[in-house]
Amino acid sequence: MGKGGMSQEGSGENGVEENLAAWLLGVNNLKIQPFHLPPLGPHDVRVKMKAVGICGSDVHFLKTLKLAHFVVKEPMVIGHECAGIVAEVGADVKHLVTGDRVALEPGISCRKCRQCKEGRYNLCSDMKFYATPPTHGSLANEVVHPADLCFKLPENVSFEEGALCEPLGVGVHACRRTNVGPETNVLVMGAGPIGLVTLMAARAFGAPRIVIVDVDDYRLSVAKDLGADEVVKVSLDIQDVDQDVTKIQKAMKAEVDVSFDCAGFEKTMSTALNASRPGGKVCLIGLGHIEMTVPLGPAAAREVDIIGVFRYKNTYPTSLEFIRSGKIDVKPLITHRFGFSQKEVEEAFEISARGGNAIKVMFNL
């Protein structure tokens, strides 16, 4: 499941339209080509894609063919933030029918290992995650996916909002890991897409005051529009940590209970550790640097807890409810929209890779 094969033909059998997907063939080389789906299993559904967002990991694979220890060694279908319409259901699927609108959770765990059995399936060592080699992704006309990882969209939730449940899930998971609530003052390091959804999630969980920092004025203005109480522009220079911490604490007007590092660099992590109060928490979400030198001694002396986050688990129902109820509005995150053609796919990834005023780039299929 979640895998298919490259076809050598341009048209389907018996005149049936061929399923097409965006294939990553090499560095800066994306091409729409046929994508053969696996047979529909009894617990699977076939889904027609309607909305697929571009994630930073997609761009990273396009530019370097690798991310952390994941390496693209053969052509791979890209994309994993997705929603669509159920086109066919397996024989044993009871909770979905043809025509249902669904958001797809893109990670398929083994369901048998210790992590899966303990409920931390996001840590499964045999995870098959869309568009993470060697598993194919979802920027395609259709995919086959386990039915229990497809979540019905409420009537007032669009396909685009359903696709954004994937990045929003990271923020929801991070807030759960750090027990964010009505008495938690939150600092968010980085106003990129993950920083912004973490801001939204923290507010939905009741955080009374949220300060977000970045080096970019435009992204800080977006964060302010999305509900940050204060924004702070910081520098890239590691020598400015103490100065930036003073600015952050002044903007918070209280102690920082939880800091979310959504960038993952030495500068951001050092700032988060120094800004958090004694007994506070720092949650590392971003992975800009796999290895970094940070002031652990002073943080340990103040009993600052460091908490890791990897993707998410059991977040889709909560994310959908936040969106349905209006507690979270993810629509402003979408800055660019494209159709599904060779030219548009290339342009969309180019815009996403440039950054600038592009927050979330979305395909409508």
Automatic annotation (TrEMBL):
It comes from the Eukaryota. Residues 26-363 form the Enoyl reductase (ER) domain. Pfam families: ADH_N, ADH_zinc_N. InterPro entries: ADH-like_C (IPR013149), ADH-like_N (IPR013154), ADH_Zn_CS (IPR002328), ER (IPR020843), GroES-like_sf (IPR011032), NAD(P)-bd_dom_sf (IPR036291), SDH-like (IPR045306). Gene3D superfamilies: Medium-chain alcohol dehydrogenases, catalytic domain, NAD(P)-binding Rossmann-like Domain. Keywords: Metal-binding, Oxidoreductase, Zinc. Its cofactor is Zn(2+). Belongs to the zinc-containing alcohol dehydrogenase family. This is Sorbitol dehydrogenase-like. The lineage of its organism: Eukaryota, Viridiplantae, Streptophyta, Embryophyta, Tracheophyta.
